[in-house]
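Same chain as my last thread, 169 residues:
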Amino acid sequence: MAVDVLDTRILRLLIEQPRTSVREYARILGVARGTLQARLDRLERDGVITGTGPSLSPAALGHPVLAFVHLEVTQGHLDEVGEALAAVPQIIEVFSTTGGGDLLTRVVARDNGHLEDVIQRLIQLPGVVRTRTEVALRERVPHRVLPLVEAVGRTAESSGRPAPGMLAP
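reply #2:
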């Protein structure tokens, strides 16, 4: 899906001012409310916008320990292990990977003892052969997409894909 300059301006506003109304976004961008709503609907339909809920802090929810647990899985059991991992509330994300393991999980815990309990639970899952854990010490770059949005916008602008009738930034 091609993202044009107006799309990137919309995405930037959504990231920087997530609690603003559609009417106010349209005013800021100098476009009709209907145009903005159509763009938002398309961005959601195309999977560019994947959620609108709040970002929550596991640390503020009493789970300040973050670890990445690599799991090696018996061949043919990837789907079953993935389903079992979805039942563990301390697992925030799971990715299939290449390299030294089959799955990479992002795990949160109350403390190191709790992390060990979660890891022991993972080791006992049918199909899990081995785990390797790396504990995160400090977040250096928080999850972000704005720099990517800006890069996509620059590419769209330089390739001559401005939105029809768009006002200059």
